[in-house]
Amino acid sequence: MATSRMTRDRNFLGPSGTTVPAWQFWLLSTLGVVLLFGVWTAVALSGLMPRRFLPTPLEVLDRLQILIVTPFAGFTFHQHMLASISRFLMGWAIAVGIGIPLGLLMGWYRLLDEIVTPLFDAIRFVAPLAWVPLAALWFGTGIGGPLLIIFVGSFAPCVISAYRGARLVDRRFVEAAQTLGASGPQIMRHVLIPGAFPSIIAGLRVSAGLGWQSLVGSELIVVGAGLGYLMVQGQANLSTATVMCGMLGIGLVGFLIDVLLRAAERGVNRRWGMT
Amino acid sequence: MGDIVFSGITKRFGDQQAGFLALDRIDLKVEDREFVAVVGPSGCGKTTLMRMAAGLDFPTTGTVTVGGRDVERPGPDRSVVFQQFALLPWKTVRQNIGFGLMCKGTPRTEIDAQVARYVELMSLQGHEESFPHMLSGGMQQRVAIARAYVMQPEVLLMDEPFGALDAQTRIIMQEELIQLARRNPRTVMFITHGVEEAVYLADRVVVMGKRPGRLLEIMDIKPHRQSGNWEGMPIEEVMDLPVFVHLRSHIWRLLKSKDAGGAGDH
Hints:
The complex is a heterodimer of chains A (275) and B (266).
Chain A: H1 2-8, H2 22-46, H3 57-69, H4 77-108, H5 110-123, H6 132-139, H7 144-168, H8 171-179, H9 184-219, H10 227-236, H11 240-271
Helix pairs in contact in A: 3-11, 4-5, 4-7, 4-9, 4-10, 6-7, 7-9, 9-11, 10-11
Chain B: E1 4-13, E2 20-30, E3 35-39, H1 46-54, E4 61-66, E5 69-70, E6 78-81, H2 93-104, H3 108-121, H4 137-149, E7 155-159, H5 167-183, E8 187-192, H6 195-201, E9 204-209, E10 214-220, H7 222-228, H8 235-238, H9 242-256
Helix pairs in contact in B: 2-3, 2-4, 3-4, 6-9
C-alpha cells in the first residue's frame, strides 16, 4: 500500500496541483524510514518488551547475516527464498494460464460469461487463507497444497482483468479484422489479446501481489523450505529475529515483483501509444 | 463481378411501437466498378446501409447481395475503410497493411512484396516499422486505404474516410484516391458528409433524407464530368466550373428541403 501511495501522486504536501520537488520527496521518504527504525530501536532498547520478542533492527540484520551463511531449518536464507519464489511462480503460472484465457473467452462468448460469472462471484470472496484446511486435506504436505493456495489467491484478478480487457477492446478493431477476413482464433490472437493486454498486465500485477501474499499462508502447511516455513520454524524456536527476517524477505521480493511488472506495463503502454 | 444490390431494405431499431424506422424501403444498385457516393444528413442511415454491404449490420427486411451472393458476414472481398481509421495500435504500419493477407495464409515473401508495393503507392516509405500513433491523421488514413486496397477486393466500402482529416490533407487524399481508383478500378461505395467531395469523386451521387432514412434522388455525375472535362483536374479548379456549381447547389437544395428532414444538420 505504501508504494502505491507514493507513486500515485507526489503532491501530498501543499494544495493539489503543486508538485513536491524530487529532493523533497526523497527527503520525506527517508525521514519516514528513519522515524520507523528510530522508534523501533528506542522501544526495543527501553526494555518495555523482552528483547527476545522485540530485537533491535541491527540485531535483525545480524540474524539475517547469519541466516544467509548458515542453514536454518535445513537451508540458508536465499535457498528458502528461492524455494518460495519457485513455488510462487508455479502457482501463479497456473492461475495466469487458466485465468487469462478464461477471462478472454468470457469477454468474447456471452454464454460462457453467464455461466461462469455467478459461480465466480460466489467463490472469489472466500479468502485464500480459508482454503488452507481444504488444501491440507486434499494434498497433505505435498506441493499441491501451497500451489492451490497461491492459485486461489491470484486467480480472480487474472480472470477479471482479461475479461474487462476483452470487453473494452474497441469494437472497430474487431470489425476491421473481420472485414479483412480474420477467423475467430485470429481475432483472439491479433485483436483481443493485444487489445486487452494493458488491462491484463495490470491484472498480472495485482494477481502477483495477491499470490505472493498468500504464499505465507500456503507455507504454513508445507514441510521443507520457504520463507513462510522459515518463519514458522523461527517462531517454534522463539527466535523473533528470524521471523522478522522472513517478513523482510517477503516484503522485498513482493516489492521487486511489482517493480518488474510495473516496468513491463509502462513499456507496453508507451510502445503502443496507449498512455 | 462486384455489384452491390440493396432490395427492399428496411431497418428498424427497437420494437414495432417504441422503435424507430432507420431505413425505409431502400432499393439501390451500385454497378460493378462504379464509384457511388452517398450523402445525407446525420442519422439518415447512410453508414448503416454501407455496413450492411460489409456484413457488419443486417436489414430488418430486404436483401443485400454483393456479386450476386447474399451478404452473410464480413469478408475480405469487401474491404472497409473506417472513419476513425481503426488501425490496430499494436501492429506496425507494415503489419497493419499485411494483416488481411496474413489472415488468408499468403506466404511471407508475397505479403512483403505486396505491402512494399502499397507502401510506395501511398507514399509511406520509411514508416513501415512505425506504430499508428506515431503517424499524422493523413498518414494513418493512407495506411487504412492501403490495408483495404492490398486485398484487391471486388468492393471497397468507405465510411467518411476523410472526415477526421484537416481540409488540406483531405484535398490531397481525395486526389490520391481518384488516381488510385483510376489505376485499380473497383466498385466503391463512399459515404460522406461533403457534397463537394461526393460530386468530385463519384460517378453517381445518392442523396438521402432522414426520419425515416430513404433515398431522395440519385444523380448521374459521370456524363457531366465528361462534358465538363474535369477528369484529372485538381478539386479547387473543378469547384469553380459552372456545371459543378450547379450540381452542388442542386444537392444542397435537396438536403435543405423539407423532404430531407434535416435542414443544415451537418
